[in-house]
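Per reviewer request, we include the raw input and output of the structure prediction for the construct analysed in the revised manuscript.
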Amino acid sequence: MSKPSFKPKRLLLVHAHPDDESLFTGHIIAKAVADGAEVMVLTLTRGERGRMKLEELKGIEGNLAAVGAFRASELKNALEALGVTRHKFAGTRAYLDTGFRINAFSRATKPKDVDEMALSAVSTAVISEDIYQVLKEFKPDYLLTYNRRGGFGHPDHKRANEASAMALRRYAKEHKGRAPQFWVIAEGRERFDVQIGNETTAAIKKAALSAHASQIAVHAETYSIVSGKEIRYDRPERIRRSSIKPWLWIKPVALGLWALPLGVLMALAGTLLHDINAADVAHTPIGLMVALALTGSLALSLRLLRESRGALYLMALTFAATLYWIAKITPEGVVTISDNSNGQWWVYGSLGICAIVMIFPQLSPGRWRKRTSSHR
């Protein structure tokens, strides 16, 4: 099956904060404008909780009204650089930037105290009503926003995805199924259908990012949001076509269920191996070493391949339950796990390995990601 093509004539982009339109879709907007498409950007907040990178602006940090006004003016300049003439802030009320914090697992999540005016505190239905009104007015053939996980997990990005899908479902229902195509930004190693970006669009993206100087450090060939992590302007932006069906969450859950039998198989295989010793003077526990190595490899693979702990949790659950079940002495007096150092190392060592892989803050196939409290 061929991949979907991205050729909008009227493109609506739904973003949560000023600078997101340039960071995540600068190439896409520049190409769409160059191709003669009508482009509109809908920004849901004014980025009031942004962290100012410029020393001369540190004084207004925390002043929500002042930061919001400053970032709104930056957005105006960025849109001019991108060639976008149609823009709107959402809300019958002015939604506030929620901000985010990094939890114990180095994941972005809601702050502990969320303002009642924050975007993530507002009902999805309320936000979708604002998006729906823009859909009726602008009549796009494509809508682009963040993916279901909100990219790196920002709660406002997640809400933008949920509200956009809800608005599109309503639009499709009222227009007999004729709704704009729903596209989302593909992050990291996610599947993508289209990638956009070249030297021409990179120059436009650089100009747009330069307008957001309070949030983005701009260099000659690269830019950075977080200190020490520079990104080239010409790095393509990747997107994929998505569905507006409300039960999409079922698929990732179902994909994770295959980890359940892995835990059972690993527990059985390790138990068979753990009491095998080498025929040398020291009686080296070669079987135990192999069993622990296999357990660690499986746990690490689930973290790296799934880019989440969900599958690892499921595997560890059935792994621990199977060990508990087979560790019992049968009525016939059969001992499955030896009551010696090998048996103790196998049970507690394997569970400890799984726990360490689970709680380790960040794992990535190509690099250790740097921890950061915020990029805003």
